[in-house]
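Hi R.,

Here's the chain you asked about this morning:
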Amino acid sequence: MKKVMLGFVLVGVLSSCTYNTYAAKQDDQLKSEIKQAELKENNNSLKDTRDKLINACRTVEDSPCIFTQRNGIDHFVLIYPNEKEMLSSKEATMNTAAAFCLSSMELSIPAQFHVALLYEKIVQDLNCSTDTWGQWYSIDEIKHN
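And here is the predicted structure, written out as tokens:
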């Protein structure tokens, strides 16, 4: 009788282990699916943010920005009349640059962000992939290249 009871206990324990392993696999699969859905949602959000920035440049009359594609690289140019205006909008500039560059990098889109000062006729570039600002240079240099 003890052997029979021991057999039932043993079968119960083994069944429990099999069930728990199966349940753990289902949990891992569910977690993986949730993570993939979150990544997809995040990418959609980044794409929406990026698209809104680009569309604002293309559709708003007298927009303070230009979006263009050149040599397989997306260029977003934020234009200020002068240095004083740029400095007064520094936080907005940094937020726009961060949103454009982050979304471009996450979506694997080669991109550069630029700030142009019209009266001074100078430009500064932000390389999105290295997150570094270049030196100011003359707009005339762009015309010659």
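One quick note: The first strand starts at residue 65 and ends at 70.

Cheers,
M.
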